[in-house]
Amino acid sequence: MSQTPTRADFDRYMVPNYAPQQAIPVRGEGSRLWDQEGREYVDFAGGIAVNSLGHCHPVLVEALTAQANKLWHLSNVYTNEPALALARSLVERTFADKVYLCSSGGEANEAALKLARRWAHDNVSEHKHRIVSFSQSFHGRTLFTVSVGGQPKYAQGFGPVPGGIVHGEFNDLDSVRDLIDDDTCAVVVEPMQGEGGIVPATPEFLHGLRALCDAHDALLIFDEVQTGVGRTGTLFAHEQYGVTPDILTSAKALGGGFPVGAMLTTDRVAPAFGFGTHGSTYGGNALASAVALAAVEHIDTPEVLEGVKRRHERFREHLEAINAKHGVFREIRGMGLLIGAEMAPAFEGRAKDILPLAIEEGVMALIAGPNVLRLAPSLVIPEADIDEGMVRLERAVARLVAGQ
């Protein structure tokens, strides 16, 4: 590189589908980041719930380095040891019998939806293709997944979109009863809506969806791209509800920052993806699989998962203290280390205004829609970093309240 890239280079060279903050981080360690000018930040964003073990965690660095000196990529004309080890680990830790590996959450959900339709086509009828999803859901950015997602803004201008998709209301079982029928092949739902505002499902809702799917011979798909791999304090969020899906999707925290996704399913459903029906060039990549295996094995331990629950309470206490002082939040909700603070009516739609103020104060945060401040830090963030980051976040909130 002959010159140091700047934020202006983004506007000059990159397609304008993102609007990144002005700071450019260049180094990370644990839950701290440093930018080009050497300014330090506490990271509560976690790469949008991706950096499950923070930045440059030694377990992941070791796995990546070791595999990088052995084998990177083969294609799916061959298999490889890390992919097989990862698949076995996921099967042994979950309800699943079979695993499909890919490169992202969008790919995982695309595969899940295609599998559901193919299963219904092969086992029941070509007419059994309807998919029930939910308003405010988010399942990816492919044309299929963005159509299944319940936020029309993401599909605007890309039509015509795939058909056979209907949307009920999240946590409203009656709305699903009005939509599901014997031509429904699947119901897809997030156990906790992420982009839709950090809204956990009620137990009655998920149990009711399972019963409705069973009654109509439809598959239940849990999108755990954002809630999975320890994010909520169990390996997958659905475990806390006692509801078992037919298909589950995972990505984000699965690779701890390395791009990887997975779709998990049962022996009943998996045969519908016979040879040649679906694929992913990078799916099961040896580098990605080695890192993901290390992440899963490190996260799925009592120390890490119990620590997630403990850290949740620490974040909540800080947010409640900030709210008691400044009155900016209407509700604080979430599970584990996926936390949302909905803005109070006086600050309606202004969650995004906190982000640049937070950056100036030295803390990185997220939003989940215009009205919810979202925190998705490392699952092993030190408690001292939580405390320091929340001091900085309070300064940002105080500036928002003061109109700065």
Describe, in plain words, how this protein is organized in 3D:
The structure is a single chain. The protein starts with 6 loop residues before the first helix and ends with a helix. β5 (about 130-135), α6 (about 145-150) and β6 (about 165-170) form a beta-alpha-beta unit. α4 runs parallel beside α9 (about 285-300) and α10 (about 300-325) runs parallel beside α12. The model has no long low-confidence stretch (mean pLDDT about 95). The strands form 4 sheets. The chain has a 7-stranded mixed β-sheet with strand order 4-12-11-10-7-5-6, with helices on both faces. Strands 1-2-3-15 form a 4-stranded mixed β-sheet. A 4-stranded antiparallel β-sheet has the order 13-14-17-16. It is about 35% helix and about 20% strand. It is an alpha/beta fold and about 400 residues long. The chain has 2 domains: about 5-55 and about 300-400, Aspartate Aminotransferase, domain 1; about 70-300, Aspartate Aminotransferase, domain 2, CATH 3.40.640.10. The chain has 12 helices and 17 strands.
